[in-house]
Amino acid sequence: MAIFGNLADKLQAITRKFGGKTRLTEQDIDGMMREIRLALLDADVSIQVVKDFIAEVKTKAHGQDVAESLSPGQQVVKIVRDNLVQVLGGSDNKLHYSSSTLTVIMLYGLQGSGKTSTAAKLALYLKKHGKNPLLCSVDTHRPAAALQLEVLAKSIAVPCFIQPEEKSAQAVARAALAKAAYLMSDVLIVDTAGRQVVDTELMAELQDIDKIVKPTERLLVVDAMLGQEAVKVWQAFDEAVGVSGFIMTKLDGDARGGAALSIHKLSGKDIKFITVGEKVDALQEFHPERLAERILG
Ligand code: GDP
């Protein structure tokens, strides 16, 4: 994954350097932590997240168990790995389904974050997992966005509900629920309007739609290229609608990856999926351990 290439190279060099040591002095540990700190900051990870990470690893690394173990270098590398998994995510990486007949997944995000293409990717993922999804767009501001969703939906043979002539997003939301009932869909994926910046008028509209469709999941689609800005975007959407998790897009790009490494710790919410390309099958479940493994080798 290009996005973490630099960080992975650096961290792997650090763990190689220290991992083989059969004696580890306090100075060794401090030196290692300094190098890890720089590598994380260089990857655009939030300073707060880096500080907490280093403090935790340091405390554990200075512990009695490590000093007395046969391979203290390996022990410290293991501590780094375990903490990286914790930074990347908690235990809520799975999609929640409603106990009623219809699960509603709302997708939020800034314009260009990859919302519409992610909606289609998620529909294909659900279809492959035996679900019967219905896509819908409540973006009444940009009819082209709804039409784009329709084209994507056709390409994966998933039904799609749009009303490009309708001016009221709330009316489209109500009609989409009726359509889902008619088609006996079990998941309704709602692609919402996005703006280039956070916009109070749009947030009010999203709140209205929320009351109508009562989402099971409110997922914020975040472009990994946003870096630390991602946290501000999360705060704004969370205040308005309450974000239940993230889909991090464009992890195939060459951004530094700081957003993916910071957002869980800063928001307390988990990344549920990542996307790694433009094709409709480029969506993957997010597994913190797997990503930590990729980064640490
Ligand atoms: P929206 O405005 O948020 O609905 O964004 P779109 O779904 O239209 O996506 C904006 C652009 O980002 C499109 O060209 C997508 O193909 C592209 N895109 C979305 N996700 C990814 C991804 O994971 N990787 C890459 N390389 N491009 C992506």
TrEMBL record:
Alphabetical UniProt keywords: Cytoplasm, GTP-binding, Hydrolase, Nucleotide-binding, Ribonucleoprotein, RNA-binding, Signal recognition particle
Enzyme class: hydrolase
Compartments where located: Cytoplasm
Binding site for GTP: 109-116, 191-195, 249-252
The organism's place on the tree of life at top rank: Bacteria
Domain Signal recognition particle SRP54 helical bundle: 3-88
Cleavable signal peptide: none
Domain AAA+ ATPase: from-to ranges: 101-297
Catalytic activity: GTP + H2O = GDP + phosphate + H(+)
EC annotation from Swiss-Prot or TrEMBL: 3.6.5.4
Keyword Hydrolase: yes
Limits of the SRP54-type proteins GTP-binding domain: 102-297
Assembly description: Part of the signal recognition particle protein translocation system, which is composed of SRP and FtsY.
Function: Involved in targeting and insertion of nascent membrane proteins into the cytoplasmic membrane. Binds to the hydrophobic signal sequence of the ribosome-nascent chain (RNC) as it emerges from the ribosomes. The SRP-RNC complex is then targeted to the cytoplasmic membrane where it interacts with the SRP receptor FtsY.
Family note: Belongs to the GTP-binding SRP family. SRP54 subfamily.
Domain notes: Composed of three domains: the N-terminal N domain, which is responsible for interactions with the ribosome, the central G domain, which binds GTP, and the C-terminal M domain, which binds the RNA and the signal sequence of the RNC.
Protein name: Signal recognition particle protein
Organism: Amygdalobacter indicium
